[in-house]
Each structure stands twice: as structure tokens, then as C-alpha cells.
């Protein structure tokens, strides 16, 4: 009887040891799984932390003074030959850079971090891209807009690489008043800003005029335009003239940034038309500034036509976002 009891005791101890060993193996497997999940969580947390850092930067007050235009710590890219006459820049909602040339309705996506063309698509109803004097580009919602010097607006969806996309054309009529030289989207007002370069009306002479075109109504907003005397710009720079060549709305401040190729100047104005500041670019760096836009982190992106050489893309990060 005692031997039988000893056997039961030994059996129970053996079974307990087996259960303990199995539990240790399971715990190790579980720990390995937790370690892997923790690694994924740290990775996600790292991404979130980076986003938080960007948000902290963008929550600060950003103005023209937030960019070291005379500094050397910028990225500059020479663009491929087919973008020699680059004329306009715009960012998509997911932070991709679009650009266009002057004469043909071909839109390029550029990797602005590397200066490479990612793809190109064209506005075409048959085979060849539409030809016109394009002077600006903007994106709103899922649509891309181009404007001509006469004020015609082309609307299309973004195409895939080498795709031909159909388009709509809207005649704004502003070409009777002035020559258009820039396009931007104001998301707060849901309007496209058509910027005048040269006036054809005496009442608009020596003034910078911005017309507002509603993307919902597909027409100009009546009596909704901004007029700024050129003298307001000359207060800030060594020139009595100001010939705008590109415009973009800042994604953080909501102010408009305008570049002037002839004066090699960039100016910041409020939506109400007040000139906040203006600075001149180093002449050696910007040959003929035609395009301007901003990345999601506030980086200022400038495009210069080739003027007989290769076009360039220049990036100015927000000062306090530099590593």
C-alpha cells in the first residue's frame, strides 16, 4: 500500500514538473510575442512623436521671417530638361508636389526631397496635350486646376503616369482687365486666387489685384477681389515696382506669399490685402522665380525657370524645424 502511495506521489510530482516546464515554454513564447508587439508599438510611437514635433512647429507663429532666405543650409535641385520652363507649383492633399511648364497642359509630380520626376500626365481630349499659355496651378479637394494668362481655368482630376485626362474649361473674363500670372487655393474661402501681373484697365494700374473664383459655384465671386497698391511693397524693398510671378497660401498662417521674378522678391500679405513683410532673394540663387508652394511641415519650395539653363527647385525649411 505504501509502495502504491509512493508511486502516486512520484506520478503527481512528475506531472506537476511537466506542467511547470510547459508553462515556462508558453511564457517564453508569450514574452517573445509581447516583445515583437512592443517593437511595433515603439515604431508607431516614434512615428507619432515625429508628427507631434511637426505639429509643435506648425502651431508656432510662422511668417516670412521664419525662413533664412540668405542662409546656405537649403536643398537645391537642378531639374530635368523638360521642366526648363517650370511655371507653377502646388501641393496635393497628401503632400506631393505638382508642377507645370508654360505652353503645354502637362503636369508633373516631382519628388521634392530628391529633385526627381515621379510621373507626368497630360490634359488631352484626343492625343496631344492641350496647348495654352499656362501661368499657375492649384489643387482643391481631388481636383487639379491650371490657369492661363487670359484667365481661363482648366479643371481635371489627377492622372496616372503617362495618362491623358479629360478636362473642363471655365472662362472667367478677367483677361479683359489684366494678364494673369499666378494661381492659389484658399481653403477657408474655397476660392481660387487669380493674380494679375499686368493691368489692362486704368483703375487697376500700379496695383496688385487678386480675383476670387468659387470652386463650388464655378464662377467669380462678385465684387470679391483684393487690390493692393504697389507702393505698399516698395516700402519694404529697394524698388518702386513689383511684378508678381507666383502666389501661394501658407497652410499654417493663412497669409498669401507672393514672389516677383524681376525684383527677386518674396512678400507676405494678409487675405485682406495688408503687406506684412517683403524680402529680396540672393540674386545668385534665384535666376527667375516663377513658382512657390509649401510642404506640409511648412517648408518653402521655390521654382526658378532655366532661362537658357536648367530650372531649379530650392527648399527653405522653417527655422526652428531644422535638426
Report on this structure:
With 323 residues, this protein is an alpha+beta fold. The protein has 2 domains: 1-59; 62-321, 6 Propeller (Neuraminidase), CATH 2.120.10.30. The chain contains 2 helices and 21 strands. The strands form 5 sheets. It has a 5-stranded mixed β-sheet, with no helix packed on it. Strands 1-21-20-19 form a 4-stranded antiparallel β-sheet, with no helix packed on it. The longest helix has 58 residues, at 2-59. The radius of gyration is 29 Å and the shape is globular. The model is unreliable at 1-10 and 17-58 (pLDDT under 50).
Keywords for this entry:
five-stranded mixed beta sheet; 323 residues; 2 domains; 21 strands; alpha+beta; disordered N terminus; single chain; 2 helices; four-stranded antiparallel beta sheet; Neuraminidase
Topology record:
Blueprint (H helix, E strand, L loop, with lengths): L1 H58 L15 E4 L9 E4 L5 E4 L5 E6 L4 E8 L10 E7 L2 E6 L3 E6 L6 E2 L2 E4 L6 E9 L4 E9 L7 E8 L4 E11 L1 H4 L11 E4 L6 E5 L4 E5 L5 E6 L8 E6 L5 E5 L7 E5 L7
| Overall pLDDT confidence | 83
Q: Structural class from helices and strands?
A: alpha+beta
The third-level CATH topology of the largest domain is Neuraminidase
Q: Tally the structural domains.
A: 2
Shape: globular
Amino acid at each position: 500500500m505504501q509502495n502504491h502511495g509512493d508511486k502516486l506521489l512520484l506520478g503527481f510530482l512528475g506531472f506537476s514538473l511537466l506542467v511547470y516546464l510547459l508553462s515556462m515554454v508558453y511564457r517564453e513564447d508569450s514574452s517573445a510575442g509581447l516583445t515583437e508587439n512592443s517593437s511595433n508599438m515603439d515604431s508607431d510611437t516614434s512615428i507619432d512623436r515625429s508628427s507631434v514635433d511637426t505639429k509643435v512647429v506648425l502651431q508656432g507663429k510662422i511668417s516670412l521671417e521664419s525662413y533664412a532666405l540668405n542662409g546656405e543650409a537649403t536643398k537645391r535641385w537642378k531639374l530635368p530638361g523638360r521642366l526648363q520652363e517650370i511655371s507653377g507649383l502646388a501641393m496635393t492633399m497628401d503632400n506631393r508636389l505638382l508642377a507645370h511648364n508654360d505652353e503645354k497642359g502637362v503636369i508633373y509630380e516631382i519628388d521634392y526631397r530628391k529633385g526627381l520626376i515621379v510621373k507626368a500626365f497630360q490634359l488631352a481630349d484626343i492625343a496631344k496635350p492641350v496647348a495654352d499659355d499656362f501661368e499657375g496651378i492649384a489643387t482643391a479637394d481631388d481636383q487639379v486646376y491650371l490657369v492661363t494668362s487670359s484667365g481661363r481655368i482648366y479643371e481635371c482630376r489627377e492622372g496616372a503616369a503617362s495618362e491623358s485626362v479629360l478636362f473642363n474649361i471655365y472662362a472667367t473674363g478677367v483677361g479683359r482687365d489684366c494678364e494673369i500670372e499666378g494661381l492659389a487655393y484658399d481653403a477657408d474661402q474655397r476660392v481660387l486666387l487669380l493674380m494679375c501681373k499686368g493691368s489692362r484697365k486704368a483703375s487697376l494700374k500700379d496695383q496688385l489685384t487678386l480675383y476670387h473664383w468659387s470652386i463650388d459655384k464655378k464662377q467669380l465671386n462678385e465684387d470679391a477681389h483684393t487690390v493692393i497698391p504697389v507702393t505698399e511693397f516698395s516700402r519694404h524693398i529697394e524698388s518702386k515696382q513689383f511684378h508678381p510671378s507666383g502666389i501661394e497660401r501658407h497652410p499654417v498662417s493663412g497669409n498669401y506669399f507672393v514672389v516677383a521674378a524681376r525684383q527677386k522678391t518674396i512678400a507676405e500679405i494678409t487675405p485682406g490685402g495688408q503687406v506684412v513683410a517683403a524680402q529680396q532673394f540672393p540674386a545668385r540663387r534665384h535666376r527667375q522665380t516663377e513658382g512657390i508652394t509649401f510642404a506640409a511641415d511648412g517648408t518653402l519650395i521655390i521654382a526658378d525657370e532655366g532661362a537658357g539653363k536648367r530650372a531649379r527647385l530650392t527648399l527653405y525649411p522653417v527655422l526652428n524645424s531644422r535638426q
